[in-house]
Amino acid sequence: MANEKLVRELKKGADAWYKIYRDITNHKDNLDLRGAMLDGAQLSGVNLCEADLRGAFLRGAMLDNAYFIRTNLSGADLRSTDLRHASFRESDLTNADLREADLLGADLTDADVHQAKYSAGTRWPLNYAPAAYGAKLFKSHYSQTGLEIIFSPELSTSQIKSSLEILADYFRACGGVGFVPDFEFEEITQRENMHV
Fold this sequence. Notes:
By secondary structure, the chain is mostly helical.
């Protein structure tokens, strides 16, 4: 798991990070940020070269002009993250979630994006074709609402329907309108990962 001292320093911003970065760069095993909770962090220009950020939560973070050279970001949550002009040379982005991320001007030379998820709203560097490198387009009919519900494949159709009806009742009781659970259950339950 992540080195909590490093996570605390990163949450303070790039300046605080650089104060300790020089001391730890000679000890690469100390750059353990696996699973770190850094959603919304303001880290423009930060140097995270060769860090282990597997499974880290960086959703909505400001990481423009950051350095991720030879960084392990496999399985990281980078949704809606500002990654403009960041360097990902030789980095591992396998299974990362890049939906709605902004990668305009980013350097993805020799980066591995195999099985990384992206959406129609993901902005890539000019002439970069993510599917050609193994990234997977995630299509959601409901992405404009910001609501994503993922059910276990072990649930039956009736359990899913019941859960959605309870959610709709709760939503209406709180003053919301317009939520109607009218999904194609046969199509949903046949997928390995069920996204509604």
